[in-house]
Automatic annotation (TrEMBL):
Source organism, top-level taxon: Bacteria
Originating species: Butyrivibrio hungatei
Lineage: Bacteria, Bacillati, Bacillota, Clostridia, Lachnospirales
The protein's name: EAL and modified HD-GYP domain-containing signal transduction protein
Ranges of residues in domain HDOD: 204-389
Pfam families: HDOD
């Protein structure tokens, strides 16, 4: 199976929910499954496996997660497959679920069980026939290019006042700006939001300069631990974080200084910790989705090393993923940002020119994040990659992020 998380945003570019996109089979290897895949494992909601595996704490602030169901899986024993709170799960239906009595009854049952409901791929002509199902829905996903939002606001405000409108296929900043200026939508989803961007800064603030200095120290060949310790000592938050990590390691010895702490970690672990901790700080004034995306992308890249026959280059691939949004972190162009930090040559080639040995890994990850399963399937066949290993690599990255930055789930 393949699966990824797609964020849904509000008009302030804050992540409000995620949608799980999954495919069970590689249709290039099993072409006969493409038309009939939906019927295989009809009693299983495969996307719930992803949600249950990673846990709700993986989703920033315990956000809701949209999980697709079809005309068969809607009748599954969903409560037995779902290990997260029902009120955090939005069961996403499509027009394969018709407004017939057996479906209407099942939808009402799921609502009574505490699940939230959403529907997509519903043409305007079906709004009235679907009245009983729409009355149970919390969200409706609309293709903004095929809907008159002014008329939709009036219609839904009058007939279904509790339903939230979600614009899908929003792929450019221009489309987004136009939609929010008109209002009416509660959530937005589209390619534009895979890497949310805000206005650039002309200068990098002093604290970020300190972080960049630290990145350059630890990414230099055979760096000096004392140099890293001296830069860490300039930032109280990093100092506290470092001491907390080392104190867990040194149960029977006293840590006497920051230099002592860095020596305890050693070059390899210190480098890994600094790259992740500093990246989090660089993202601190940006949408939290960027932190989530680059951290998961970094670990996913490292986990893919074996599949791309780069087992010895996992650390470099990790850095590539981590710095893939360095332009947004610093409010610079990618070239300007990479001129400020020290990164391996192949990482720079991939990020700046989409060239070199690491570029295929980065392109694969971006396609995966977009749930472009057709292209991902093709690349797996060409590279003789095992789908289970790819899926495990992604789930492992999700769990790593969950454990790295645990959050408290509310409500």
């Amino acid at each position: 199976m393949l699966a990824t998380l797609i964020p849904l945003f509000d008009d302030k570019m804050s992540v409000c929910a995620y949608s799980v996109f999954a495919r069970k089979e590689n249709h290039f290897l099993n072409p006969e499954m493409e038309g009939g895949a939906r019927y295989d494992g009809a009693g299983t909601v495969h996307e719930l496996e992803v949600v249950s595996s990673m846990g709700m704490s993986m989703l920033s602030g315990g956000k809701e997660v949209f999980v697709p169901v079809n005309q068969f899986s809607v009748f599954a024993e969903i409560s037995l497959q779902c290990t997260v709170p029902a009120n955090k799960v939005v069961l996403l239906m499509d027009n394969s679920i018709t407004p017939e009595p057996n479906y209407v009854k099942r939808v009402k049952e799921l609502k009574m069980q505490g699940y939230k409901l959403a529907i997509r791929k519903l043409p305007i002509s079906s709004f009235e026939p679907y009245k009983e199902i729409l009355n149970q829905c919390d969200y409706i996903l609309l293709n903004h290019a095929k809907i008159d939002i002014e008329k939709a606001k009036i219609y839904f405000g009058k007939v279904y006042p509790k339903i939230k409108l979600c614009a899908v296929n929003v792929d450019t900043k221009e489309q987004y700006d136009m939609l929010i200026s008109h209002g009416g939508y509660d959530l937005y989803e589209g390619g534009f939001f895979r890497m949310p961007v805000r206005e650039s800064e002309t200068e990098v603030n002093p604290l970020k300069v300190n972080y960049i200095e630290l990145l350059n120290v630890v990414n230099a060949p055979d760096f000096d631990l004392t140099d890293a310790a001296d830069v860490i000592g300039k930032d109280p938050a990093l100092t506290i974080s470092l001491l907390e990590i080392v104190n867990r390691m040194a149960l029977n010895s006293e840590i006497t200084s920051i230099r002592h702490a860095t020596a305890m970690l050693g070059q390899k672990e210190l480098k890994r910790w600094i790259n992740t901790a500093v990246t989090k700080e660089l993202c601190a004034d940006r949408p939290t989705e960027i932190t989530r995306l680059v951290m998961i992308r970094a670990k996913f890249a490292e986990n893919l090393a074996e599949s791309f026959e780069m087992s010895l280059l996992g650390q470099e691939l990790f850095i590539m993923g981590l710095f893939s949004a360095i332009d947004i972190m610093l409010g610079k162009t990618m070239k300007e940002a990479l001129d400020m930090v020290l990164v391996p040559k192949d990482v720079k080639l991939a990020l700046l020119d989409n060239e070199g040995p690491f570029a295929p890994v980065l392109n694969f990850i971006k396609r995966y994040e977009d749930a472009d399963w057709t292209e991902i399937s093709r690349l797996m066949v060409l590279g003789n990659m095992d789908m289970t290993k790819i899926y495990d690599a992604y789930l492992s990255a999700l769990r790593w992020y969950r454990d790295l930055f645990p959050v408290t789930v509310t409500g």
